[in-house]
Amino acid sequence: MKRSLSAVLCAVLLSACGGAQIKKQQAAISQLETQSGELKSKLSERETRIAALESQAADLENKLKSSQEQAESLEKSNADLSSTIAKQGGLGNRVKEVVAEKDELGRKLHALRKDKLALQAALRKSLAQTAAVQEQLDALSQKTEQDRTRRLDEETRQDRERTAWEAKVQEEADALAQELAEELKAAKASLERSGETLSLTISDELVFEPRGAKVTTPGTAVLDRIGAALHNLRGKRQIRIEGHSDNTPIKGLIGGVTSLWDLTVSRATAVVRYLHEHGGLDPRFLTASGYGEFRPVKPNDSPEGKAANRRIVLVIEPPSR
Question: Do 262 and 293 lie in a common domain?
Answer without folding.
Answer: yes
